[in-house]
Write a structure and sequence with these properties.
Structural class: alpha/beta
Strand content: 5-15%
CATH architecture of the largest domain: Alpha-Beta Barrel
CATH class of the largest domain: Alpha Beta
Shape: globular
CATH topology of the largest domain: TIM Barrel
CATH superfamily of the largest domain: Luciferase-like domain
Number of strands: 13
Number of domains: 2
Order of helices and strands: EHEHEHEHEEEEEHEHEHHHHEHEHH
């Protein structure tokens, strides 16, 4: 099997993912007349989004996941579309048949799932899609998820990350159950596969006992892409040790550059080539032909935010009920708790740095949940993406449009051609598999030396 990462140094170009969401990523998107109202349950609209991304030569579409609906209070949940979420593996399996090129990445938790099942699902998707699958590894930040799996207490963060390391190791081991070329299809000898090229894992660890093997041949791209999104110290360490693509939320170029260098350093210390770990910050991009047009659409979205929904969203991230405080007053002193410690710290830092009120802070995160928001003309958006990409803050971007479908249409119609004109983005796909598109090498099997 040829190595798709062999020439990755010759012409570095940014990588792009499109993060899917019902009507858009802004919490008021479903109220805007440009948006799809029923995106979440209408498969034809998901197909249209994926094909738009494919037409724009995006590397992949990405579907996040949460195993709890407790994102808002009972009073505010009916006012928000975010409480509705389709199961991502079902969606991506269907999209595999409706697309030809685009990569298919989704989330599966290491806290409330099992390695054998995750390995089987993603290996199956990889085969059915011709090598386009990727697994986003999460440890489940939302404590409410425990109550849907027979528990009452969410495991401590340190334990969740220990479990995640072992979980990823087991999954990768199961993906190596068959050697390359193990299936012989020899009718004359009545031998379907070479038994010498099948390996039983026999894993016994702190959290898992998994015999194996996984009865699915080696992936068309060696194995599915491993993606990770943790921003805490534990998260960055796990990313450096295991991830091939790293999602991150950063509010400033300086913070993004620090994160970029830190994860690359950790990868090198783990004995990996840092160039095989792609850092892709989330960018909440709303682009129009002029700056004024972009700002007008974004302000329309901001004006549609129900204050109760905005406060509830902020409360979730800060881990404190903010409804008792003056919405136009300053943010009170709060601990860095919440569902996601790293995201909470990011928001508190932004509020203190910019002197934001509670209303201003929820408005700041309404379009991208703490990701960098880039609202503007084609020229301005391309300039900022180029700066992050060429000056050591990103290898590409996980694009988070505030509104669907127009947000994606504008990106594909106007922004992509500008990036191509600058030589920053591909004009044709480099190969069929997601690994080839990302320019990543095929990982050797752990049995290749035996």
């Amino acid at each position: 099997m040829p190595d798709p990462g062999a020439d990755r140094h010759q012409s570095r170009q940014m990588k792009l993912g499109l993060m899917l969401q019902q009507s858009g990523h802004h919490i008021a998107a479903w109220l805007h007349p440009e948006s799809w109202l029923d995106t979440e349950l209408d498969f034809t609209k998901f197909v249209r989004l994926a094909k738009m991304a494919e037409d724009g030569l995006f590397d992949f579409v990405f579907e996040a996941d949460s195993l709890s609906g407790e994102r808002f209070t009972p009073q505010t949940l009916p006012r928000s579309s975010i409480g509705v979420r389709i199961e991502p593996m079902t969606l991506l399996t269907a999209l595999a048949a409706a697309t030809q090129e685009i990569g298919l990445v989704c989330t599966a938790t290491t806290t409330y799932d099992q390695p054998y099942l995750v390995a089987r699902r993603f290996a199956s998707l990889d085969h059915l899609s011709g090598g386009r699958a990727g697994w986003n590894v999460v440890t489940s930040a939302h404590a409410a998820e425990a109550r849907n799996f027979g528990g009452t207490v969410h495991p401590a963060k340190e334990m969740r990350y220990r479990r995640a390391r072992e979980f990823v190791d087991v999954v990768c081991g199961l993906w190596d159950s068959f050697d390359e070329g193990a299936l012989t299809f020899d009718r004359e000898q009545a031998q379907f596969y070479d038994p010498a090229k099948l390996h039983v894992l026999n894993h016994e660890g702190e959290f898992f006992r998994v015999r194996g093997p996984l009865m699915i041949p080696r992936s068309p791209q060696g194995r599915p892409i491993v993606v990770q999104a943790g921003a805490s110290d534990d998260g960055r360490q796990l990313a450096g040790e295991t991830a091939e693509v790293v999602f991150t939320a950063q509010q400033t170029f300086e913070d993004a550059a620090f994160f970029y260098g830190d994860v690359k350093r950790r990868a090198a210390e783990a004995g990996r080539d840092p160039d095989t770990v792609l850092i892709m910050p989330g960018f909440g991009i709303l682009v129009r032909e002029t700056q004024a047009e972009a700002e007008e659409v974004f302000q329309q979205l901001q004006d549609l935010i129900n204050p109760d929904v905005g406060v509830s969203l902020l409360s979730r991230y800060l881990g404190t009920d903010m409804s008792a405080y003056d919405i136009d007053g300053p943010l009170p002193d709060l601990p860095s708790g919440g569902d996601s410690f790293s995201r909470t710290a990011l928001l508190l830092d932004a509020a203190r740095r910019d002197g934001l009120t509670i209303r201003q802070l929820y408005q700041k995160i309404a379009g991208g949940r703490g990701h960098f928001q880039l609202i503007g003309s084609v020229q301005r958006v391309a300039d900022e993406m180029e700066r992050w990409f060429t000056q050591g803050a990103a290898d590409g971007f996980n694009v988070i449009p505030p509104i669907f479908p127009t947000g994606v249409e504008q990106i594909v119609r106007h922004l992509i051609p500008e990036l191509q004109r600058r030589g920053l983005f591909r004009t044709t796909y480099e190969g069929r598999t997601l690994r080839q598109k990302l320019g990543l090498p095929i990982p050797p099997s752990r049995h290749s030396a035996t």
